[in-house]
Amino acid sequence: MKLFAITATVALASIDCNDGNNGGCSHSCKSGVCECPSCWELTDDNLTCQPEAGMASISCNSAGMSISVAPCVVDPASSITLVDSSCAAVTGDDGNYELATALDECGTEYTVNADDDAIVFSNKLIAGAGLRDGIIVSRPLAMSFECEFSTYYDDVKLNYTADAGLVDVSFDFGDDQPDAAFFSYALEFYSDVSYTDLFDIENDVVVVGNTIYGAIENQVVVDGLVFTVESCTITDASIGEEFKLIESQCPNSIVSAQVDNFSDAEQVRFNFMSFLFPGSGEESILNFSCEVVVCDSAASDTVCSTDPGCTARKRRSADSESAYTFTASKKFTVRK
């Protein structure tokens, strides 16, 4: 039995470069074919050019987003900025043009991706028309770039400093973002109701009956986003007991728990009376964990914007299409 190799050849349809729309080409149209300038390449649609691999990259973290491009991608542009033209490019140590912005500056916008429960921030690198010897030699250029932020992660200890949360997610322009970036929150405790002096709850011992003052704090505030404490649980792992301090945003009156503000962009405060479980020893290490929900402040139907109704029946759970969940935890020692 003989095997024959069959080769299929697909001819690209010629396009009309004089159709008034540049043949649909993003850059140049010549002899019925789209062409790309140096350092660019055609994508699979044979119409759109994008920077070659390694010529442009994007980085995302809780402090903001940035794009880096090789000079050949944009030269001889007369200017290189973001949507807000006051945010201009600088030259990095590698010679590339660098543009960076916070998540709510330089014209950055965000959208809620309901299907993936994600928040997507977007901006554009805008290169002005290229000038050489006093004449325009290239058209203006706009390169859109995005950063997608995770809406849920668990088992995260949020007792780090702000800098520790700035983990970069970097990828080539045109590639899918490999991993989601993360917002940065911290679980902190204070010595008294003034919430001015931090209390080292993980190393100091708390006596039963004392009031503990805590707060979930946003390490990098983004304009338009707020958050609420959905629940907090105190656990004694040594005996397998747990107590719901806050449930469905409502504090537990058994330990005189109170929540000062149900939602905020920067800080949500709470306090409660320290306690031990009946089976705990004279001195026990308890784990304190909270679930935080982040919301778009413009949305009117999220857990951040509606009264939790703590004196009524249990409120419905958070709407997963408009709220985003994080988990924070710390350990502390209580003595009888």
Automatic annotation (TrEMBL):
Residues 59-311 form the ZP domain. The keyword Cell wall biogenesis/degradation does not apply. Keywords: Disulfide bond, Signal. Coiled coil: none annotated. Gene3D superfamilies: Zona pellucida, ZP-C domain, Zona pellucida, ZP-N domain. InterPro entries: ZP-C, ZP-C_dom, ZP-N, ZP_dom. The keyword Transmembrane helix does not apply. It holds the Pfam family ZP-N. Transmembrane segments: none annotated. This is ZP domain-containing protein. It comes from Oikopleura dioica.
